[in-house]
Specification:
By secondary structure, the chain is α+β, with helices and mostly antiparallel strands. The protein has three domains: 155 residues, Sandwich (Immunoglobulin-like), CATH 2.60.40; 169 residues, Rossmann fold; 45 residues, no CATH class. The chain is built from nine helices and 21 strands. The longest helix has 26 residues. It is elongated and about 105 Å long.
Length: 397
């Protein structure tokens, strides 16, 4: 989609340009004072070349335009791909330098040349370490055609921004499911075991004859050798477990470093559970409930696209000492056959108490008792540093 009109070009003189101007001035003055026409013509020629450089560079920069592509939400620490198209509206080829900057991220592209009417795509891969809305900075063109003495700098596209979600940690989803079953966080229904033949981490239910499409890794070779027929393992697995995540974002009025760490831990846990659910063999329904006036609920199938779209609400989310409690009646319609988790910055928060008072079973998770199935981003970073110090990298991050 085309951006708004760019700003007026500005001229930047290089050190060589200042020397050029000084030389032209000296030659012109000496030629005039001594009445030496050759020197006078030489001074005029130098100044004319400088004017030609300015004219051509100005024209080149004014004939380019940029069309920026929308940047989808990304997780903190994830590589963000920023793209745009540079279009040459001039009737002649152009050679220019296009630059962009966003915080500690800088990129430059030398486009040499862009034909008349051509379109060239530029791509930058940047990383943002904290959540929030980060400016991408303007796209600027720097043209010094043809002599390189004067640079004409012009904004091709105004500032844009990217929404950065909380950094995701690692969740052992099988351990999480086992822990959740023991905690009795569901609505009271039994998750019935179902038979499947696909490879998984469930218990082996039995054997059945091989069918085309089965994985060779699931062949039970001892039985196949004894009966002279291929048999594959069947597994028991549970139905996909729907999740309802309720945030309890209490934060003191003047939060210190520890309070801020606990708040970010809760947001990272919510994102990590969503990412792990989307990456599981059978993604279930996922609901994120964010307190507010009124509260907001984001519900859908736990896919990668849904996680990025729904959890973008946490990119700029802030806690407060008087954060509203999500009413139990707001949670109840979304709680059928689902496991309800209250992610709180402190144990015994009001959100979990309100749900239990309304006879809604839930499990509260807080930094006071961190679960074994969750590794926060800080722990992953520490493991990576230790692994590099010993010359190895963890297999799972």
């Amino acid at each position: 989609m085309p951006n708004a009109a760019a700003g007026r070009p500005r001229v930047r003189m290089t050190r060589a340009a200042w020397v050029w101007v000084l030389t032209a001035a000296v030659v012109t003055v000496v030629g005039w004072y001594k009445s030496l026409n050759l020197l006078l013509l030489g001074g005029y020629f130098l100044l004319t070349l400088l004017g030609v450089n300015l004219r051509l560079a100005w024209r080149a920069s004014s004939k380019l335009r940029a069309e920026r592509h929308p940047t989808p939400p990304a997780f903190a620490g994830e590589t963000v791909t920023v793209t745009a198209d540079i279009v040459n509206d001039a009737g002649f080829p152009l050679t220019t330098l296009v630059t962009a900057a966003a915080g500690a991220n800088h990129s430059a592209w030398m486009l040499s040349p862009i034909g008349s009417g051509d379109r060239k795509a530029i791509t930058a891969r940047w990383t943002f370490t904290s959540r929030g809305r980060h400016p991408l900075g303007p796209l600027t063109v720097d043209s010094s055609y043809p002599l390189g003495l004067l640079h004409v700098v012009r904004c091709l596209a105004p500032d844009d921004s990217v929404l950065v979600l909380p950094r995701a940690g690692a969740v052992d989803f099988e351990l999480f499911r086992y822990w959740l079953t023991r905690q009795e966080a569901g609505a009271g229904e039994t998750h019935r075991p179902s038979r499947r033949s696909a490879p998984g981490s469930g218990d082996v239910r039995g054997l059945r004859p091989y069918r085309p499409g089965d994985s060779p890794r699931e062949v039970h070779w001892k039985t196949a050798a004894r009966l002279n027929q291929l048999f594959v393992r069947e597994y028991d697995c549970t139905e996909p477990m729907d999740l309802v995540l309720v945030l309890d974002p209490w934060l003191p009025a003047a939060p210190d470093a520890e309070a801020t760490r606990r708040f970010e831990w809760v947001l990272s846990l919510a994102v990590s559970l969503a990412v792990a659910s989307a990456a599981s063999d059978s993604p279930a329904e996922l609901t994120l409930i964010v307190p507010g006036r009124p509260p907001a609920a984001y519900h859908g199938r736990a896919t990668a696209a849904f996680v990025r779209r729904a959890f973008a609400a946490l990119a700029e989310f802030e806690g407060s000492p008087d954060a509203p409690v999500v009413p139990a009646e707001f949670v109840r319609p979304r709680a059928n056959r689902a496991a309800r988790l209250v992610l709180s910055t402190r144990a015994g928060g009001p959100a979990a108490q309100a749900l239990r008072a309304a006879h809604l079973t839930c499990v509260e998770v807080s930094p006071d008792r961190p679960p074994a199935w969750f590794a926060p981003p800080s722990a992953l970073a520490a493991k990576t540093l230790i692994a590099h110090a010993h010359g190895s990298v963890p297999a799972r991050l």
